Amino acid sequence: MNPKTVTKGSSDLSAKNLADDGDSAVLDLARTAFTHARAGNVPPLTAMLDAGLPVRLRNERGDSLLMLASYYGHLEAVRLLLERGADPEQTNDAGQTPLAGAAFKGEAAIAMLLLDHGARVDGTGDDGRTALMFAAMFDKLDIVELLLQRGASREHRDADQRTALDYARALGARRSATRLESPAS
């Protein structure tokens, strides 16, 4: 989508595009929404969505409201956004999915909720990194277990041809490496 052609009625607005349009009041509203998503403030976020705030709004880094709520561990905000139609596969500008953000932070309940709402267990951005890779890198064993139970591929390779096990070993994530080395169960 060409940033210059995005309109205020679009379902996938970015705060940068709003700023380019010169509408500072709308930009302030967007910033407030991102603050509520980061903080898990469900009532004001609900009110903003009820008033027409696009659920797919993205900030200048491409983070959606869902990405921020997922990354910062706010289960009820994630639930609200998913129920309102947020896309669990929408990547940010770094190519990360909300599931990858939840995996990185070790948010098992959020990861489960995202999976239950259609997040692909082996979904990736352009770099090919999966949530399992992020969980393995940072030794988030409960997330590794959840993702394996949900069918994550141990064999998936990213753009650099690395697997989750490769990342676990490289970063000294012993528990995850041991689990990924064990036979599939």
TrEMBL record:
The record's SMART domains line, in alphabetical order, gives: ANK
Per UniProt, which keywords does this protein have? ANK repeat, Repeat
Organism superkingdom: Bacteria
UniProt name for this protein = Uncharacterized protein
Task: Give the organism the record lists.
Answer: Stigmatella aurantiaca
User: What SUPFAM superfamilies does this protein map onto?
Assistant: Ankyrin repeat (SSF48403)
Where are ANK repeat segments found? 61-93, 94-126, 127-159
